[in-house]
Amino acid sequence: MRQSSARARRVAAVSVSLIVAAGAAACGPEDSGDAKGSGGGSTPHQGGTLTVLNSSPQQDFDPARLYTSGGGNVPSLVFRTLTTRNRENGAAGAQVVPDLATDTGRPNKDATVWTYTLKKGLEYEDGTPITSADIKYGIERSFAPELSGGAPYLRDWLTGAAGYQGPYKDKKGLTAIETPDERTIVFHLDKPEGEFPYLATQTQFAPVPRAKDTGTRYEEHPVSSGPYKVVKNENDGEHLVLARNTHWSAATDAERKAYPDTVDVRSGLDSSVINQRLSASQGADAAAVTTDTNLGPAELAKVTGDRELAARVGTGHFGYTDYIAFNPTVKPFDDPKVRQAIAYAVDRSSVVNAAGGSALAEAATTFLPAQKSFGHRPYDLFPAGATGNAAKARELLKEAGYAHGLTVTLTHSNSKDFETGPEIATALQDALKKAGITVGLQGLEDNDYSDKIHTVKTEPGFFLAHWGADWPSGGPFLAPIFDGRQIVRDGANFNTGLLDDDSVNTEIDAINKLTDLDAAAKRWGALDEKIARKAVVVPLFHPVYKRLYGKDVRNIVISDWTGVLDISQVAVK
Q: What is the pLDDT along the chain (573 residues), one digit of tens a residue?
């Protein structure tokens, strides 16, 4: 579950972390004419150094503390997991495939027990074998309070795991995970979870040898199960250098290509500096990429006018939605007609322009992004057209008792982040004025904004929000926002509409039982439309990634899972 901050959005992990997602599949370099994933038009080869230029440091480089594949794809070069994402362009990349395991998991009849078998010949960077007990231990240490930061699903899903405090305090371990032999691992869940194979892609499923665990210092030199090992980690991920793990075998790993000899990750850089360096492509920067820095509107305009630069822009889509959120316990938003009136009054053209234009944002009328894996079902229940339907909005306001208009306050972040910042708020203010709705703006600094909208007691009635999925499915998109049992009244709450509808909760449970992911996707799409009729949110847009890469970078692959360039596939000239 992820309400993405500006930092989380940049690293995608989708979080991860991320923006993006509607319509066209992600693709390689624009207008280059290259075949899928070829980038630059030459055959990829091994060797050289790939430089990664990022804004956010690759902090907490410990599989227990990372949130999915936080920091773009850098962690996936070091940490292998039971399953992983399919490393292909576009929609094909939204599929889950085996990684350390021989398959994506074998469920029992009701999907409450999942069994995995490890491939033969798996080794750590020191040549010792990877065992099922190591995966169990890696999961157990992710429960330790001192290693917090990872995704919360395992605590919620594993039987009897809610109060577990990790192996440093509880030597008995998690009884919900069994390892009957060195290659078999069995998970027992509290309830059916047909999407467990997606969860098994998260870094908490990376193996950790108990004898090499150094607790909070493990991030300094985690033991690699992937194609690269950590040889330098300065200033908590500000400068991370990865070199080849000679004990990694491509015969056991169909997904990671591992072309470069070295990966040099430089973080904490200003976004404009990153784009300037990638544009110039001088020296080492010619073989550089970014996994967390988008092109802004002005930069994109400059790049678009330069044929050579335009050929070095990767476009990505990821499951992410920016929206208006309502708190129906706050007047006048307790009246569905008021919420519907605002939905009709929204001018999505002006919102898209405020978000950077149509190249960086795609108008949204559905909460689920327009990708097959989410089960997207096209609908527009409160059709506002491109510029808003002020007449229909006024009609609904009159029915709600506000014939002479309405005055409300819209809460937003003061961050320069286009998603929830002043630009979007001002665009909405102007549009709603045409419908007789006077909008006062309340801008808050990032931390204050996040605390206010995620606390039930302080949540405003009308505010901007955004959400990104941890894997490409309707489940982690709809359940955290609309499942009444996930309302948190004494902590961080994401069900901002405080929706607790038995029929919605029951359908979520029913879909979670399905192990046929295509069938599940269709039902998530139907549920999305059903929830939309309650008008507790108004979808605004799905952002889009536009990212430069160096002139000597080859084999560009951008999937709908992360929406960012996959550095496990990249080669350098």
A: 444 433 333 333 333 333 222 222 233 333 333 333 445 456 889 999 999 999 988 889 999 999 765 445 899 999 999 999 999 999 999 999 999 999 999 999 999 999 999 999 999 999 999 999 999 999 999 999 999 877 789 999 999 999 999 999 988 899 999 999 999 999 999 999 999 999 999 999 999 999 999 999 999 999 999 999 999 999 988 999 999 999 999 999 999 999 999 999 999 999 999 999 999 999 999 999 999 999 988 899 889 889 999 999 999 988 899 999 999 999 999 999 999 999 999 999 999 999 999 999 999 999 999 999 999 999 999 999 989 999 999 999 999 999 999 999 999 999 876 688 999 999 999 999 999 999 999 999 988 999 999 999 999 999 999 999 889 999 999 999 999 999 999 888 999 999 999 999 999 999 999 999 999 999 999 999 999 999 999 999 999 999 999 999 999 999 999 888 999 999 998
Separation of alpha carbons 496 and 536, rounded Å = 8
Q: Which amino acid is at 331?
A: K
Helices (H), 158-244: 196-199
Distance, CA of 188 to CA of 160 (rounded, Å): 9
Task: Read off the pTM.
Answer: 0.89
Domains of the chain listed by start with CATH number: 320-543 (3.10.105.10)
The helix (run of H) or strand (run of E) holding residue 264 is strand 262-266
**What b/e string do you get for 225-235 counting C-beta neighbours within 10 Å, with b at 16 or more?**
bbbbbbeebee
How far is residue 115 from each of residues 106, 118, 206, 546, measured CA to CA in Å?
Answer: 5, 10, 16, 39
The residue whose two tokens read 């440091």 is: 57
Q: Is the dihedral of CA 330, 331, 334, 340 positive or negative?
A: negative
What DSSP element (H or E) covers 241? strand 239-244
Give the C-alpha separation, 132 to 127, whole Å.
Answer: 16
Task: Provide the 3-class DSSP secondary structure of residue 414.
Answer: coil
Q: How far apart are the first and last CA of the chain?
A: 38
Residue type (1 letter), 26: A
